[in-house]
Design a protein that fits this description.
With 118 residues, the protein is mostly beta strands. The protein has helices at 66-74, 81-84; strands at 9-18, 21-24, 26-30, 36-41, 51-62, 95-100, 114-117. It has a single domain (9-117), classed as Urease, subunit C, domain 1. It is built from two helices and seven strands; from the N terminus they run E-E-E-E-E-H-H-E-E. Strands 1, 2, 3, 4, 5, 6 and 7 form a seven-stranded mixed β-sheet that branches. The longest helix is centred in the middle third of the chain and has 9 residues, at 66-74.
């Protein structure tokens, strides 16, 4: 790698939101521009050097105004994320976030839920 190349970013989480469903134990490799290069399952991400781990649900393509979008989701706590997330997502335009403090059994946000932009 020469000095002008940016390193890849590897991010692991408890779950990953995809249009095809939820992926458990995801390890997402992103390019320097934030483009997904690879998604794999990795139950032991701590064994991969240089891997960032975030507890929660990893979501790509979240609106760039992520705080306002998250606040809108919080007004719909009774609805599962399978219904509330898809209309918000901006394929190819959004940002990566982690939603934490979820009720995983029902896949709903809770009053304790938080968002972190990656």
């Amino acid at each position: 790698m020469n000095s002008s190349e940016q390193p890849l970013r590897r991010i692991a989480s408890n779950r990953l939101w995809t249009s095809g469903g939820i992926v458990r134990w995801p390890l997402v490799t992103l390019s320097a521009e934030g483009r997904v290069l690879r998604i794999e399952r990795c139950p032991d991400p701590d064994r991969r050097a240089g891997t960032e781990f975030y507890a929660g649900l990893l979501v790509g393509d979240f609106p760039a105004d992520y705080r306002r979008a998250f606040d809108a989701l919080l007004t719909r706590l009774s609805e599962p994320l399978t219904e509330t997330l898809p209309p918000l997502l901006r394929p190819g335009e959004g940002v990566w976030v982690v939603l934490s403090g979820l009720d995983y059994a029902t896949l709903r946000l809770t009053p304790q839920s938080r968002i972190l932009r990656l």
